[in-house]
Amino acid sequence: LKEALVDKTKAENLLLKYYTNSDYTIIRPGGLKDAPATGKAILTADTKAAGAIHRADVASLCVDALYSKKCSQKVLSAVDPSLADPPTSFEAFAL
C-alpha cells in the first residue's frame, strides 16, 4: 500500500504542476468499505480529513463532482462523518 500511496502522490503533484489549464478534480476517499451507500458522505476541502466511506458513496460523490463547475481544479477528500466513532464533523464542500 505504501508504494501505491507514493505513486498516487507523485501523479497528483505532476497534475497540479503541469496541467494548470486543465479541468480536473482530485478526490481522495477515506478508507473504503463494501456496504450499501449511507447517503451521508461528503466532499470536503480539508485534505487532512480522514475516515471511512462506502464505495457506493464515493461513486455518487464522483458523479456529483463531474457536474459541478465548483469542483474544477480542486483537491477534495471524500469521507462519511457518520461512520466515525465518535462521529466527526468536517466542513462540507458546497457543490
Write the layout of secondary structure elements.
Blueprint: H1 2-18, E1 25-29, E2 31-33, E3 42-44, E4 52-54, H2 55-66, E5 74-79
Parallel strand pairs: 1-5, 2-4
Antiparallel strand pairs: 3-5
Tell me about this structure.
This protein has 95 residues and is α/β, with parallel strands linked by helices. The chain contains 2 helices and 5 strands. It has helices at 2-18, 55-66; strands at residues 25-29, 31-33, 42-44, 52-54, 74-79. The protein has a 3-stranded mixed sheet with strand order 1-5-3, with helices on one face. The longest helix has 17 residues, at 2-18. The radius of gyration is 13 Å and the shape is globular. The chain starts with a helix and ends in a 16-residue tail after the last strand. The relative contact order is 0.24.
